[in-house]
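Batch manifest, entry 17 of 40.
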Amino acid sequence: MTETWRLFEDWKRRVPVTEGLSVDDMLPHAVFQRNSPPILHLYTFEPAAIVGRYQDIRAALKLDRCKDRGVAYNRRSTGGGTVIMGPEVVALGLGVSLGNSRTGKGIRSLFQAMSRAVMRALEALGIEAGFRPKNDIEVSGKKLAGLSASNEIGNAVLFHASLLVEFDVDLMLDIMNTPTEKIYDKGYSCFSERLTTISREAGRNPGMDEVIRAVIRSFEEELQVRFENSSPTEWEERTARELEMNRYRDPSWVFSHKHPRSRMGEALRKTPGGLLQVYLSTAGNVIDQVVITGDFFSSVESVNRIESALKWTYVGKESVLEAIRKVWVPDMIHGVDPEALAEAVVAAKRPTPSSSGLLESAKEAHG
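Output type: structure tokens
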């Protein structure tokens, strides 16, 4: 039997970044707290740079260049890396229960279902794409769409995607700080060689309307659902406004990141789940403070539980691994296993290497 899901469309204007993100964050609230059917939100942003939940915005972006070029910036509630949004990039937010039969149980099943739906839309536009873990839809090795998710409201999840119809690579290079680890890992000399667009791959500019229609049809076909145009209820509007004021207009949210003390050691590890950064301070050989961050996908609660479990643990591989396993549940950090995390924690006991040393370590790790 075909389910009816709700559809919010708002792509004919440039949605302010604080508004777009707050409406997206409201979606899982509506699903979990108000028993709403799943909601798909399709829209376009004003020019904006948006970092993932666990990133340091000052490290990821050149904020002075953003201001000079009229590019808004903020932090989203989902994990992953920095995305540059604008009127020719489709922004997609989906609020859905992780137990929904159409998307399957768990984050992994959700990513698989959503990636299939996005690839089906691209196929309808004449583009053959594939999924590259952890979160990229690619064409011939070049990223065309990025995916992210966060499970925060009961069993409801917010899924995010961005589809590049057209894209200003020069703008991105001007406002972003480009970590050498990620460039090296992908095997490209610069970001402009890692990205492509729907227009480039289709050999034409299909226009936003055609792309949006392709996305809607493909999600309906892939998930066996029917979308019904809808508008936020009074409760949903009020909830979105509260999220906007208390989160996306609050500097403590926008500029928040875990501030490691200068005497903390650091380790960086590239995992299937993303770049993992661990900062560690010790009292003797016991963990005094640990900070886990990066561009992985997880919930704040999960990361906090791991950090709490590690405090006052002896800094040895077996002791650290045992502490992590005591609180570990499947997909606690998507794409990261306890062994990889334990190795990063133990490695962080060493003094922080120079940036050139990090690159050399990355090279050694990749042979």
